[in-house]
Automatic annotation (TrEMBL), chain A:
Species this chain originates from: Siculibacillus lacustris
InterPro entries: Aldolase_TIM
Lineage: Bacteria, Pseudomonadati, Pseudomonadota, Alphaproteobacteria, Hyphomicrobiales
The protein's name: Radical SAM protein
Length: 422, 152
């Protein structure tokens, strides 16, 4: 059962300008990014006249959905700020009070309540998006791009959703996949290794276009041991990617289930993978059991956490992290009742992990229409500034790098944007 | 000096260029660099090959917290200038970045390119010691030592 709140919450939180004044040591551009992610964007008709499908990357096959309940592929994918910061953001209904992207002369700017804030650029489309594999599959259905990264979504079905109460409450992966099927009927359920190898080969022809790979997908529980099949799928994919490199190892990130030591060793030894992420989603055992019932039932909070720590022995300090959906710890009715309490608990647990070589990164929670938490609200901008700062301070304190998941390799984590100063 | 003259000086291979940024605590960090070129309008371009360099971090800090940077320029004929400015943009992706990436590697060999920093130049000041001495002696006469004007 969902706890219904109104959507007027953005009115009663600190404005961006108030946050800028309150936190002079926090980069204004990153505060802006956070708030744009919280509130979403609306592209004016004028802005859309500058969108050229031949040049710009439009919304494409993705793993998670949008907040406007529609799959609209003629809108820009996301934005870049002038410091190189990505804003991974989706369109929001105007009544939610999103930031507005509008045209001024031949440039695009972010506006809030009529005030012009910052220039933004659109992401550019990689050349491989216009090619097909030898089997005839459009390459943009095999891999997707960020400004400097190739994404490969292994599977858009998460087996935690197989039982009605197993999927994570904030996640819309399966519902969004069903929604996308109506539009992207040619998209394979799981990209074949040959198509992946060919797509990567084509992508690498563009010099200076990419710095890393990110592989992810829904959890696959099947196998002799839990997740064995998921691991085998990733090994197949990574080996297909690896055909294109002269070195055994290549910059890459796997965002996947919490694998056991044997599975992690297979990934390390049999592929070119260089980093490993497994998302705890929320850093609290009680809330994990409520918010991530499938993960809790099949693995459990403490075992999930321990598997991350054991992964450090294999991938090395600074090459293992866990993602949290920043703010979901405040979900109603069972979440923390105040932002201070939530922050303290989250950073305390993040420090436990940091002491053991695992870094924590956060996303900005967007209550998506296809998720169980669709009627919830994300916390304040103030909260996110303190969360990002706190996670960054832990990396400084424990000497942990986050190179594989930073502003350029990923761009979706305000806390790792701050790592540009490390 | 006109903008065109300044850009010509920057582009000349024999010109020595030093980019000065500031560390977190405000300590100036000079970096002698061959990777500075004229940009569009009144800008300079700085090509940073290393994502992890201190200059890269300092430029990030400068664009985030509106800190100034400067470029010291020494021409082959001995003329000296300081250009002041602020980083306006970090180009790290897109066709413009890729074009610079290809050109940079064609010119420099197997090196990477982390960013092209666009520095908005707000002023250029000539560094001419002879002219400065004349100005001080004319306008600030109290600053000279007496023995310099004493009878022999």
């Amino acid at each position: 059962m969902n706890y219904v709140l109104t959507r007027t919450h953005f009115d009663d939180t600190a404005t961006l300008r108030e946050a800028w004044a309150k936190y002079p040591d926090f980069p204004r551009l990153i505060a802006l990014k956070i708030d744009v992610q919280r509130r979403g964007v609306h592209y004016t008709d004028g802005a859309l006249t500058l969108v050229d499908p031949a040049l710009h990357q439009l919304r494409s096959a993705n793993i998670f959905g949008t907040r406007d309940e529609k799959v609209r592929y003629l809108l820009p994918d996301s934005l870049l700020l002038r410091d190189g910061t990505s804003i991974v953001v989706d369109p929001a209904p105007l009544e939610w009070g999103p930031y507005v992207v509008d045209r001024v002369d031949d440039r695009l700017f972010l506006f809030d309540q009529g005030e012009r804030l910052e220039e933004v650029e659109l992401w550019h489309k990689p050349a491989f998006y216009d090619r097909s594999t030898s089997s005839g599959v459009p390459m943009n259905l095999i891999a997707q791009a960020r400004p400097q990264r190739i994404n490969i979504f292994q599977s858009s079905f998460c087996y935690f959703w197989a039982k009605d109460d197993g999927g994570c409450q904030f996640c819309d992966i399966v519902n969004f996949t069903k929604q996308q099927r109506e539009v992207l009927s040619d998209r394979p359920e799981r990209p074949r290794a040959r198509d992946i190898a060919e797509t990567v080969k084509e992508a690498l022809k563009e010099k200076g276009r990419f710095t890393t790979f990110c592989l992810t997908g829904g959890s696959v529980l099947k196998g002799e041991e839990l997740f064995d099949l998921e691991v085998s799928h990733y090994i197949e994919t990574l080996q297909a990617i690896g055909e294109n490199f002269t070195t055994k190892k290549f910059p890459s990130q796997l965002v996947a289930s919490a694998f056991n030591e044997k599975q992690l060793r297979r990934l390390w030894e049999e592929t070119g993978l260089t980093s490993y992420t497994s998302d705890l989603e929320v850093l609290n055992e009680r809330l994990f059991e409520w918010i991530c019932p499938g993960k809790a039932k099949h693995v459990g909070y403490r075992e999930w956490r321990d598997r991350l720590i054991r992964a450090v022995d294999i991938f090395g300090r600074g090459n293992v992290n866990t993602g949290i959906v920043g703010g979901v710890e405040l979900a109603r009715p069972l979440g923390f009742q105040g932002e201070g309490e939530a922050l303290e608990a989250t950073l305390s647990e993040a420090e436990y992990l940091a002491e053991r070589g695992v870094t924590t990164i956060h996303t900005v929670w967007v209550p998506r229409p296809g998720s169980q938490f669709r009627d919830q609200v994300a916390p304040s901008l103030d909260y996110y500034i303190r969360l990002a700062s706190g996670l960054h301070r832990l990396r400084v304190k424990y000497g942990l790098s986050i190179d594989f998941d930073d502003y350029r390799r990923c761009g979706n984590h305000p806390d790792t944007d701050l790592a540009r100063l490390l | 000096m006109s903008l065109a003259e300044f850009h010509a000086l920057i582009a000349a291979p024999a010109t020595l260029k030093i980019l000065v940024t500031t560390d977190e605590d405000g300590t100036p960090r000079p970096a002698v660099s061959d990777f500075i070129a004229p940009g569009d309008g009144g800008t300079l371009l700085y090509f940073e090959p290393l994502e992890s360099s201190k200059t890269q971090r300092n430029l990030t800090r400068a664009i985030w917290f509106d800190r100034p940077v400067s470029v010291v320029v020494v021409a082959a004929d001995g003329r000296r200038f300081t250009a002041r400015g602020r980083p306006q943009r970090a180009v790290i992706a897109g066709p413009r970045f890729q074009a610079h990436y290809a050109a940079f590697r064609a010119d420099r060999g197997d090196v990477d390119l982390a960013a092209v920093w666009v520095i908005d130049v707000t002023g250029v000041e000539g560094l001419d010691l002879g002219a400065d001495i004349a100005t001080e002696e004319r306008e600030r006469p109290f600053f000279r030592h007496l023995d310099r004007i004493a009878r022999a």
